[in-house]
Amino acid sequence: MIRFTFAALALSSATMAYAETHTIAPGEGAQERLQEALILAEPGDEVVLEAGRFTLTDGLSLDVDGVTVRGAGMEQSVLDFTAQAGAGEGLLVTSDEVTLRDFALENPKGDGIKSKGADNIVYHRIRVTWTNGPDASNGAYGIYPVESTGILIDGTEVSGASDAGIYVGQSSKITVRNSVATDNVAGIEIENSRDAIVTQNYVSRNTGGILVFDLPNLPVMNGGNVRVTNNLVSGNNTPNFAPEGNIVAAVPRGTGIMVMANEKVWIEGNVVHDNPTAPFAILAYTQSYNDTRYNPYPRQVVIAQNNIDGEVNDPDLPGGELLVAAFGGNLPSILWDGLNQEGAQPALAVTGDIPGWSLNLSRQSQSLAEAQPGPLNPTGSGEAWDMDGIGAPAELEARLK
Amino acid sequence: MMRHWLLFLAACCGLAGAISARTPAPVNDAAILDGTPRMLSEFRFFFRPRSQSSHSAIPYELRTPLYSDGADKLRFAYIPAGEQAIADGDGLLQFPVGSALIKTFAFGEGPDRRLIETRVLLHREAGWVALPYIWNDEQTDARLALAGGRIALTRPDGAEISYRIPNKNQCKQCHVKDGAVIPIGPKARNLSAEWLEQAVEWNRLDQVPDVERRIPNWQTVTDHHAEADEASGGADIDAFARGYLDVNCAHCHMPGGSASNSGLDLRWEQDDPVAYGVHKPPVAAGRGAGGLLVSIEPGAPERSILFHRMASTEPGVAMPELGKSTVDDIGLEVIRTWISAMETQ
After folding, report:
1. Which of B169, B279, B315 is the closest to A61 by Cβ?
2. Is B281 on the interface with A (CB under 8 A)?
3. Which of A140, A170, B100, B226 has the CB geometry, 3.0–4.6 Å to A220, for a possible disulfide?
4. Prior bond to B320 cis, omega within 30?
5. Do A137 and B287 touch (CB under 8 A)?
6. Three-state secondary structure call for residue A270
7. Residue partners of A278: CB distance under 8 A and separation at least 6
8. Which pLDDT belongs to residue B284?
9. Does residue A276 sit at the B interface (CB-CB below 8 Å)?
């Protein structure tokens, strides 16, 4: 026992010797002092943000592997970008093994935190807020990891993003967990990504709650192997305030969980209430495209048991009122466009008892005006697949302590 | 360009003759290879800092330069004694380890010229390193500014601008490809044939690279701004526009670049119209898209995201994201003409 303690001491003092802490206080020159610390930090170092409000005029960036940026709490240490005059995001991370925790960003002019090509990154208790609420002039993404492998997003809060609050793009091995996404166009979006878990999040007051998309003409495509489980997806009924042209601008107000293209998406155990257009929407890519590598169809989307309220009576769809009347006062909870890829696994399997309806479209990118709505006949019961090893690598959990 | 070289030669000869007793100290090769000098003078690139006179770094110009809020740029390549760069087709000259690329940003002419910042790219054993230096008010030296800075200044045309000096990471943001820092400017296709020949003659370049298609000389656009449409009409406008996009945008918008995730590839050699934006929907543009549906809509610059973002100075919308607080009116006009002239389908 004594020897054990001694060994532990030796270990911790060794760590002390190599890892440095750079403490930054708010106030005069915060931009330069903080940025300089982010540049001069060595792998293993910690950049500590004292409590208070840091007034920043330009984007910050971190390009050193293995650095932790730690604040005094997401309400205590606030990076205020209200006066930002340049750069496309508040904080840009381009190095691996970075941990961001316990601080907030307010009113970045572009995106909040973007991490690109930054493998094994942890976002823990990070808050990104546009303080004026839903507004088309807010930045696009709050938390925005892209082209990365190994992403753990835990206990974060994002609100006001004019695109997606938490947006993971062109990445793999992803967990988005215990987070709150409100008042964004999309609460959480997993795009062109694989091996993702979205679980135990509170997603409310967005236009659409959780989106799992695959889009053409991107370096990384073929999204899939995604689990969306045990989330509270309620009251996503904010009018769409995304600038037109972006794919989320086409998401109808009142959407709960939406899958577009992708393969193997498992949706189970979510509480999906008060999303009055479509608690669940499963669609092929809606637009025409020019990319031979791209598969526009969803394949093997499984909607298992979820808790629904059945109240789907204010759809943001053309002819919505008539539709509601035709279905007897409430639309069924699953909206499907009716499209399967020929010769592939069925687009959708419903293993629970959730009712659905189909637009009965006959081809990809067909106009909704040509829809022939009717009750949904679930297409097969689906096949289980191996989901071992999806989500963020287990070793990232250690950094939450 | 030739004239530039002759001036440079004359300066060297004059110097050697007049003050041979005081031959400037050689460039500090050790500082290029290691360390982080606090002052630019430690490199000893310039023997007269204010006039940016160098005895060992070779001045060069780009046929189409990157727009940086209208700053004049003085570019130099330093190659260690006895070594030479290697030509690589129409692409980047391959500089040996120990080389440095030096770029000074200035506003104003003659005695009114004010040096603002100097960015150096140092080729070390482990790769290229980028460092920014800010000039002092006395214009005698420039101080390392890892965190960059922001300076209010009045341009010669009277415009008051908030000029941004990038921080060290932001240098990398533009200079990165597949995770490594690389130079952007000195590509054979964007250097004059005369300069390349001269460099070979001087043994600083192994051979004159074979350049099939040279990026056009932007000076011909700026000299005849009013007649730009006519002067560059027809097929030429395509070369001017694509040259401009290659130089101003493609360092990020290329595979392996900082904006690779956008899927937009604006390199000179990219010949797939969708890849360089034609009818390409935005991906992660957010509000930057300005409610427009595609990067380029042939015949309609006003409905093209690329044009919209070039025309903006608002952070989060403006492109390029860095080093731009004013719109490049001439560049914008060329892009407008180019998109307008595209055939609609």
Report:
1. B169
2. yes
3. A170
4. yes
5. yes
6. coil
7. A252, A254, A255, A256, A258, A312, A315, A331, A333, A334, A335
8. 74
9. no
The 10s digit of each residue's pLDDT in A290-342 is 888 999 999 999 999 999 999 999 999 988 999 999 999 999 999 999 999 98
> Closest by alpha carbon to B132, among B116, B151, B156, B112?
B116
Say yes or no for a CB contact (<8 Å) between B274 and A291: yes
Q: Which residues of A touch B260 (CB under 8 A)?
A: 147, 219
Tell me which chain B residues have a C-beta less than 8 angstroms from the C-beta of A261: none
CB contact under 8 A, B287 and A163: yes
B230: three-class secondary structure by DSSP? helix
Q: Are strands B100-107 and B114-124 parallel, antiparallel or unpaired?
A: antiparallel
Q: Which two tokens stand for residue B131?
A: 């460092």
CB–CB contact B179 A35 (8 Å):
no
What tokens were used for A294? 């791209």
pLDDT tens digits along A106-165:
999 999 999 999 999 999 999 999 999 999 889 999 999 999 999 999 999 999 999 999
Q: Residues 207 to 266 of A: which have CB under 8 A from any B CB? A: 215, 217-220, 242-247
Answer whether A103 touches B (CB < 8 Å): no
Q: Find how far residue A250's CA is from the centre of its chain.
A: 17
Is the Cα torsion angle B8, B13, B18, B22 positive or negative in sign? positive
Q: Of all residues in chain A, what percent are helix, strand and coil, respectively (each to 5)?
A: 10, 35, 50
Facing residue for B322 by CB, picked from A87, A108, A162: A87
Q: Determine contact, residues B14/B47, Cβ cutoff 8 Å.
A: no
Note the residue count of chain A. Answer: 401
Distances (CA, A) of B43 to A51, B78, B100, B170: 40, 11, 10, 22
Alpha helices (runs of H) in A244-398, residue ranges in sequence order: 320-326
